[in-house]
């Protein structure tokens, strides 16, 4: 479930080249604070996936709401069984 969420969220990522710095910027607009910056596009993708993973771990740990993506609701993971 978590891996599928990350894959689906990465599909929503947008990237742009920052001309002044000659670097790539990537973000997932629907997930506030999930962004990355790197000298290569592939590096930016890796950094963005790592930022997303850390963002999710923190939100799960703190019990904060996580937006549903592609019908995947990670908020159900924090509910008692």
Task: Provide a concise account of the structure shown.
This protein is an alpha+beta fold and about 80 residues long. The chain contains two helices and three strands. It has helices at about 1-10, 40-60; strands spanning about 15-20, 25, 35-40.
Question: What is the radius of gyration?
Answer: 14 Å
Q: Identify the overall geometry.
A: elongated
Structural class category: alpha+beta
Order of helices and strands: HEEEH
Number of strands: 3
Distance between the termini: 17 Å
The side-by-side strand order for the widest beta sheet comes to: 1-2-3
Work out the strand percent. 15-25%
Any low-confidence stretches, pLDDT <50, length ≥5?
Answer: none
Helix fraction, binned, reads: 25-40%
Largest sheet: 3 strands, antiparallel
Structure notes:
- It comes from Nostoc favosum CHAB5714.
- This is Type II toxin-antitoxin system HicB family antitoxin.
- InterPro entries: TTHA0281-like, TTHA1013/TTHA0281-like.
- This protein is α+β, with helices and mostly antiparallel strands and 81 residues long.
- It is 40% helix and 17% strand.
- It is built from two helices and three strands.
- It has helices spanning 2-11, 41-62; strands at residues 14-18, 23-27, 35-38.
- It has a three-stranded antiparallel beta sheet with strand order 1-2-3, covered by helices on one side.
- A hairpin with a 4-residue loop joins strand 1 and strand 2.
């Amino acid at each position: 479930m978590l891996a599928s969420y990350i894959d689906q969220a990465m599909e929503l990522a947008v990237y742009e080249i920052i001309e002044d710095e000659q670097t790539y910027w990537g973000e997932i607009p629907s997930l506030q604070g999930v962004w990355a910056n790197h000298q290569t596009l592939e590096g930016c993708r890796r950094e963005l996936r790592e930022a997303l993973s850390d963002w999710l771990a923190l939100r799960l740990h703190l019990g904060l709401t996580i937006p549903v993506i592609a019908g995947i609701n990670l908020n159900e993971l924090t509910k008692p069984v």
